[in-house]
Amino acid sequence: MYVVVDKETDGYRGIGKKDLEFISAMDMAKKERGFNILKEIEKHNDKITAEHKQKLRNTVMDAARERWRQFAGNPLIPVNIDLH
Questions:
Q1: What are the angstrom distances between the C-alpha of 62 and each of 52, 68, 69, 82, 84?
Q2: Which residues of 22-45 are buried (b: 16+ CB within 10 A; e: fewer)?
Q3: What total number of domains does the chain contain?
Q4: What is the 3-state secondary structure (H, E, C) of the chain?
Q5: Is 57 within the bounds of a domain?
Q6: Domain that holds residue 58
Q7: What are the tens digits of pLDDT across the range 19-75?
Q8: What is the pTM of this model?
Q9: Is residue 36 a part of any domain in this protein?
Q10: Is 83 within the bounds of a domain?
């Protein structure tokens, strides 16, 4: 509910076109601010997800390298093994 107070007469007046435009603009500003907050949350979550995937990828690669070292030692030059 909106009440319009006329500063010149210190009384109430009816809502006019300018008042409705102002109210509409304020509502849009609130919605846009909400959308911007949601975009920031999504951006933050995407960053955390990417970091998590990278950590997982690094953990898997470290484990694979360690298994390779246990199996074949620590080669100085990477060796491509063709099992076919």
A1: 15, 10, 10, 22, 26
A2: eeeeeeeeeeeeeeeeeeeeeeee
A3: 1
A4: CCCCEECCCCEECCCCHHHHHHHHHHHHHHHHHHHHHHHHHHHHHHHHHHHHHHHHHHHHHHHHHHHHHHHHCCCCCCCCCCCC
A5: yes
A6: 5-72
A7: 888 888 988 998 899 899 999 999 999 999 999 999 999 999 888 888 887 777 665
A8: 0.50
A9: yes
A10: no
